[in-house]
Amino acid sequence: MNPRSPLRAAILAAAESARLQRFVTKHGFRLGASRFVAGQSLDEAVPVLARLNAQGLQTNTTLLGEGVRSEAEARTAVDAYHEVLERIHFEGLRTNVALKLTNLGLSIDEELAHRNVAELVEHAARLGNFIRIDMEESIYVDATLRTYRRLREAGHDNVGTVLQAYLFRSEADLDSLLPLAPNMRIVKGAYLEPADVAYPDKSDVDAAYVRLVEASLSGEGFTAVATHDERMIEQAIAFARGRGVPPERFQFQMLYGVRPRLQLDLVSRGYDVLVATPFGPEWYRYLMRRLAERPANLLFFLRNLVRG
Ligand code: FDA
Questions:
Q1: Which of 12, 53, 136, 251 places its Cα 20 to 30 Å from the Cα of 276?
Q2: What is the pTM assigned to this prediction?
């Protein structure tokens, strides 16, 4: 969807209303949030992750939540992620972890978020697992990339991050990170950004997306092509084939509940596919971003509301 379409902007702006939040949080799971969220608890998410694994899909999981307001709340999130890592290991799931630095305290103090994520990256390394740092609003990009760079320079290889094609800066960011052979997920971008930092037109975002994927595949790192856009996927496949990029250097990633048939088609063609499968009681903002991406999702939600 166009990053600055009026409908998208209206949904994201409406998401800030406390009344809407109360209503959706109360009824949303019944109305369709469960299409995008694997459950409200880790116990509910585990069988979903296992089922996806059994279909040949890799997974990552995220305890939904962002923007904690105190060090104590950040600690609660860190402890929950320690439990997630242990549980993944215990259950033998092919699942890694994706998290948001604001959930670990980034909006309070960058050092706090750095300490927290470093602790989780070390725990993941002991269990042979991997942590991806999601990318949030543009105001957090510098701190997120600084944190990623610090982790890599400290010798942690089991960590990756994300670049958003809608930001003008992302191609330069990728250039500066390529010497680290980064593990980079490339997305189009999910937030409402001002026109002075992000392309307003979808065609420009799509063109930047292709450029970023091709630049990343041309480097020495790992590229997660995270999109549901079949055109982008086929272009990445053709580029990787043309350049002889080995299959272990890239992967396709999609969201739980979005284009499940395409996910399985790619697996049957022999490609590595990871499904990002979040869980947790704080699913409201995540759901609103998914509804804003595609009006049909909003209609699905409203239809369930009318049906009661
Ligand atoms: P686009 O929006 O052009 O959609 C292409 C097609 O995909 C649509 O025509 C439709 O068929 C389908 N589609 C897309 N979204 C859909 C939806 N919600 N429901 C149903 N169908 C849909 N963003 C970010 O800013 N930071 C991040 O860290 C991440 N992380 C992330 C991880 C993974 C694994 C994925 C797949 C995506 C993200 N994103 C993200 C979100 C990303 O920025 C973007 O908003 C969505 O992926 C939608 O964009 P597409 O690339 O799919 O293309």
A1: 12
A2: 0.94
